[in-house]
Amino acid sequence: MTTPAPAPHDPAPHDPVWIRENTRIMAQDSGENPDPNGIMTPGGGGADGETFGERIRRLRVQSGLTQRALAEPGYTAAYVSSVEAGRREPSGEAMAYFAERLGVAVGELRTGEAPGDDLLLDFELVEALAVGDAPALGRLAAGEHPRAARARIALGHLALPARPDDALALFEAAERLLAASPPHHRAEAVVGRAAALRHRGDARYAASVLVAVRDELVRTGYPAPGVLVGVHAQLSVCQSELGDDEAAAGSAAAALALCGPVEAAALHLAVARSLHSAGHLTEAAYALESARLAYSHMGLGVELGWCHRALARGRRRDGDLDGAAAALERARALLPAAAGDLAVDLAEVRYAQGRTEAALSLLDGLAGDPVRLARAERVRGLAHLRAGDPETARRHLAAAVDGHRRSGPRYALAQVAGDLADLLVSEGRADEALELLRSTVSLVDGVT
């Protein structure tokens, strides 16, 4: 997953040691005690270092209530005393009861953050996501609030693809923080974990993780579109790496159908600021979450690029050459690192469309990977054959055969060998064509 470049002043935003230590230091600065994995222990301090027991006692005293007055009729004074002393962890039901009695929101009682303060921190999270501000994300990653989990998810994506082990630790930490949250909240951490697994070379396991979370979202009634974008996008990349082009195209189409224009992110954020200024906190929080998801989609640039490529393969297989070309153009805009392979993909489509000159121009100056070069030689050979230059065509097709004999999928070798054999037969050189096909069959059979 890619993210917008961090601000120029940000120190070492992608350094895993910095990410781990910054998160740990920020946690300590806030009075909290991270465990060895950087996860806050239950009963830890809130935003100001105050424990839950201390907070409930402070609010009770400020409200002029005795322990008995706070507890009854639902609980006992002894229960309140044990909670204030840190010997008991209140249930969700008890926390809601005490919050109502104290006249505060449940979230404020749990974290020590007033609703308005909480929203300001959410603004900080979204604005950090917008520019890839790792130091800000590190500060926000401390604590047990769901915001901390989302900050860790963002830090995990910043660590990819170079440091998948560090990313995996951050995603797993976020997943543990969100263990009691609804499935669509946990799913963002699961998608990140799958991405880290794929970058570690385990695309098959990553795909199984993604299929499981996709099915859980649908089965439990939480098919949140903003989350499913990431699930389908990552799954498409895994399926492409596993060679299942048909499944990859289906997942790609699902992801792209759900992903709205990234320009909407800034608009959502502007609306959230306006609503917050006007005092409409609930509506501001909703708009802010929309902005956060939109900025998260911007970080899926690489995965969505591969989705467009997978979609192009599916469309080409179905005979939709115009659709395949359009998808490849979008993929080229999102995947500059794969420009060479995508140029050959598009050249093959342009040739199939009858646009021979356009196909050849895409291959000018192509270099690098031997398989890519062999594919390009085949397109050049077919283009020259169509133009009535069999001698040049033969030379390029022979180069493609040699290239595919050294590396690449066997089906590609069989395909280009068939092209060259057809040309040789048309020139009356049937014996050469037969020998070519025999040697090719022996190579293909040798690996199957």
How many strand elements?
A: 0
Output the structural class.
mainly alpha
Quickly count the helices. 24
Determine the oligomeric state from the structure: single chain
Question: What is the CATH C level class of the domain at 335-447, in words?
Answer: Mainly Alpha
Strand content: under 5%
Give the overall form: elongated
Give the % helix. Answer: over 70%
Distance between the termini: 35 Å
CATH topology label of the domain at 335-447: Serine Threonine Protein Phosphatase 5, Tetratricopeptide repeat
Estimated radius of gyration: 29 Å
Q: Quick check: average pLDDT?
A: 82
- Just name the CATH architecture of the domain at 335-447: Alpha Horseshoe
For the largest beta-sheet, the strand count, sense and barrel status come to:
none
Q: CATH-wise, what's the superfamily of the domain at 335-447? A: Tetratricopeptide repeat domain
Q: What's the SSE pattern?
A: HHHHHHHHHHHHHHHHHHHHHHHH
Sequence stretches where pLDDT stays below 50 over 5 or more residues: 1-47
